[in-house]
Protein: Raffinose/stachyose/melibiose transport system substrate-binding protein
Amino acid sequence: MRGLRRLCAMGATLALALTSTGCAVLLPPSEGSADVVTTWAISGGGEEELMPGEAEKFEQRTGRPMQTQFFQNDPYKNKLWVSMGSGTPPDTFFGWGGGALEAFLDAGKVADLAPAMREHPEWRDHFLPSVMSPVDIKGGTYGIPIGGMQPVLMYFNKDVYAKTGLQPPRTWNELLDQIPKLQQAGYLPISLGGADSWTYLMWEEAIVDRVAGPEAFQAILDGKPGAWLNPDIIKANAMLQDLVRRGAFGNAFASTSAELGQQRTLLRSGRAAMMVHLGAGYSDILGDDEQWVREGHLGWAPFPAVEGGKGDPANLVGNPTTFMSATTGPDQQVAIDFLREELSSPEFTQGLVERGDVPPAAGMDEELRASKDADYMTFVYDLAKNAPHFQQSWDQALPPGPAQNVLINLQKLFLDQIGPEEFSQLMEESSR
Structure:
């Protein structure tokens, strides 16, 4: 999904180089040296705003030279894969956990933080348990949460609901019941930025979890034969396709862009009643029109429950958070110390709150209640804190190949080019 999309084809190719034998990848030497502790992350987020100061504090306290570098999203992914394949990675690096991190782990490139967390149990306890699954891999822990939590939510225009006399849907049946009522009142029921295929994935992840439970996707991750053919996954996709055929998204969703802001403009302008999006939807709309948000026109709610579904309605899907990991090498211990002492500090966490992010840390209730966006931030925090399961976005949890294929096939499903059974069959074949 946005900011967390699939690894590019170059990265997938280099992933093979990580585990291949009998050949070498000849690339330029590292930009740093053995004495400099390097940190890489993406630009434009809280990492770029907060990390340099934390690195400077660590350098002053320990005497170890620190270097922080920031890159745009897609170039960063390429650069990280190249560095891992060539044996010149940074000492700490930004990531999303899941399949890409596991590939680095299998190649022996990532340090296990579990021993240090056993030695310092308060370190592990600093984080909400529900966000750790993307970095808890094969009995170890290979990263720490450092970014704002991004669950998939239902956003709604309060003015539209006030004018129609409706309430935001709590269940799937309520959602279906509202579609014709909103259409008859002249509103687009749901804004969808289908020009960006990752927007389909939010719906897929949420409905599959509600209908089939988290065990269904876990079976896919575990590589169990026939996992994509699970009847509950097929049922969930039939429900999605039914939603499309009812006109819930209108006729122009395939040309509406989320990344260009068109999806949220439909919601904010009052032309659409609802929008499903990550937690970033709030900050994006706030950036578009802060006054509109402050005046109370924007509402939010969990993704609707599915009557009779196997998934707990309190489960979340999306991006639990982003992570920082340490690589193996001569500066491994220093890198781990930096993660523990600076990037897990109360000061770093408070910095996230001050910039409007909902931190993945335990015990933040009081700080969030005092924040400028207290209503929204406490809502998201309570959801994450109480979630029995917080499923990482599929395009990050899956290996690069299936991650790309799920986006391609979801687009076909929403455009009614394939049916639910064919979707599952295509995904099953691509996962072999």
About this structure: The first helix runs from residue 9 to 19. The chain is about 50% helix and 15% strand. The longest strand covers residues 37-42.
